[in-house]
């Protein structure tokens, strides 16, 4: 059952069907990744809605789905144009999930933010993407984008 939930989530993601993705989450879901940091509840769904709306030349593959009744994981790769620079990003991500009452209650994505910044930002990402200063700026911009999206869609 839990592997089915992960497959359902990523199949919806492949279609950019954010409402089907969000339906896989508990209302109080906790999410984390290197770009957005920690998000909770409604912010998680809004993040996916924003990213799907901005998606250009998007594709996603996933594999290595594993799960038991408590949690699971998967590997996924998203390819897309980063909207701010028009540069192609291939983001290789490992996800970990915790389940509660048949839904995802925690979703933690892990990827190399420096590798992402080199692809998304070009020369500045190559030179400075490893630094906490640039990584914090990426997080601040991601969260500011989310807040602006939420305000525009309230």
Structural account:
This protein has 154 residues and is α+β, with helices and mostly antiparallel strands. It is built from six helices and six strands; from the N terminus they run ααββαββββααα. It has one domain: Nuclear Transport Factor 2, Chain: A (Roll), CATH 3.10.450.50. It has helices at residues 2-14, 18-22, 42-54, 113-121, 123-128, 132-152, and strands at 25-33, 37-40, 59-67, 71-82, 87-100, 103-110. The chain has a six-stranded mixed sheet. The longest helix has 21 residues, at 132-152. It is globular, with a radius of gyration of 15 Å.
What are its keywords?
six-stranded mixed sheet; 6 helices; alpha+beta; Nuclear Transport Factor 2, Chain: A; 6 strands; globular; 154 residues
Amino-to-carboxy terminus distance: 35 Å
Number of helices: 6
> How would you sum up the major sheet?
6 strands, mixed
CATH topology: Nuclear Transport Factor 2, Chain: A
Structural class label: alpha+beta
Rg, Cα atoms, Å: 15 Å
Shape: globular
Give the fraction of residues assigned to helices: 40-55%
CATH class: Alpha Beta
> Which residue ranges are poorly predicted, with pLDDT under 50 across at least 5 consecutive positions?
none
As laid out across the biggest beta sheet, the strand order is: 2-1-6-5-4-3
CATH architecture: Roll
Number of domains: 1
Reading the helices and strands in chain order gives HHEEHEEEEHHH
Q: What percent of residues are in strands?
A: 35-45%
Number of strands: 6
Could you give a quick summary of the protein structure above?
With 154 residues, the chain is of the alpha+beta class. The chain has helices spanning 2-14, 18-22, 42-54, 113-121, 123-128, 132-152; strands at residues 25-33, 37-40, 59-67, 71-82, 87-100, 103-110.
């Amino acid at each position: 059952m839990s592997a089915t939930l992960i497959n359902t989530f990523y199949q919806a993601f492949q279609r950019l069907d954010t409402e089907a993705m969000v339906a896989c989450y508990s209302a109080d879901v906790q999410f984390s990744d290197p770009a957005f940091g920690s998000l909770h509840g409604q912010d998680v769904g809004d993040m996916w809605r924003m990213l799907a709306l901005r998606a250009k030349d998007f594709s996603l593959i996933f594999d290595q789905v594993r799960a038991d009744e408590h949690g699971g994981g998967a590997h996924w790769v998203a390819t897309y144009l980063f909207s701010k620079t028009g540069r192609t990003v291939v983001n290789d991500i490992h996800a970990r999930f915790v389940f509660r009452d048949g839904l995802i209650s925690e979703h933690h994505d892990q990827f190399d933010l420096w590798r992402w910044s080199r692809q998304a930002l070009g020369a500045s990402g190559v030179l400075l993407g490893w630094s906490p200063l640039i990584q914090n700026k990426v997080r601040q911009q991601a969260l500011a984008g989310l807040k602006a999206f939420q305000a525009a869609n309230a």
